[in-house]
Amino acid sequence: MEEGRGIKDNIKKAIYFLLSTNFGEIATLILALLIGLPLPLVAAQILWINMVTDGVIVMPLVTEPKEKGIMKRRPSPYDEPFITKWMVPRMVLASLVMGVGSISIFYYYWATSTLELARAVVFTTLVVFQWFNALNARSFTVSLFGMNPLSNRNLLLLYLFISYGMHSSITLFLSPPKGVRKR
Fold it and tell me: Which of 29, 121, 169, 179 has the most CB atoms within 10 Å of its CB?
């Protein structure tokens, strides 16, 4: 039973991570359209975020060690959905923070530089938001600051660094040169 609870928790963590980050991307695009800004991401950037960043980071979330005291909790009903009532506000908050934060940064760089640089910066911003969201998704009961950061070495050492390395390489090679200004 303990293993089953751990597996169910990890599936919920992965669902929370994927939905909140994808809704964060959607919020970014919708906010840009509502405000009248150009699209902050192009299709290739969205694909990269969804395939590479999400795909690499969600794998260790499903291998997260069981939380302490998992057997002291009351059993959940057999028909409880994977997206529970208490997960929805948490997902909405994470999505809004990602959306508003990304649009704020996009607007600043778009107003002071070029559209290409603004897109590169918002692309990196969304990826970094996702890294922090992955750390936040590791537990539904314990704060990120109360957790042992090395309890899931797969997440920190392997996947975050792989994601960082892949994102850094694509950003360095495909971003416009620094100091590009509007004319």
Answer: 121
Closest C-alpha among 7, 20, 15 to residue 133: 20
Instruction: Please report, rounded to a whole number, the percentage of residues in the chain having pLDDT higher than 90.
Output: 35
Q: State which amino acid sits at residue 63.
A: T
Residue given tokens 């999505």 in the structure block: 95
**Domain interval for residue 65:** 2-72+79-174
Looking at the predicted structure, is the pLDDT value of residue 181 above 70? no
| Number of neighbouring beta carbons within 10 Å of residue 6 | 16
Q: Indicate the SS3 state at residue 89.
A: helix
**50: CB partners within 8 A, 6+ apart:** 22, 25
Q: Is 19 exposed, middle or buried (0-12, 13-18, 19+ CB in 10 A)?
A: middle
* 84 located within any domain: yes
Q: Tell me, yes or no, whether 183 lies in a domain.
A: no
Q: Is 13 contained in some domain?
A: yes
Confidence grade of residue 160 (pLDDT, cut at 50, 70, 90): low
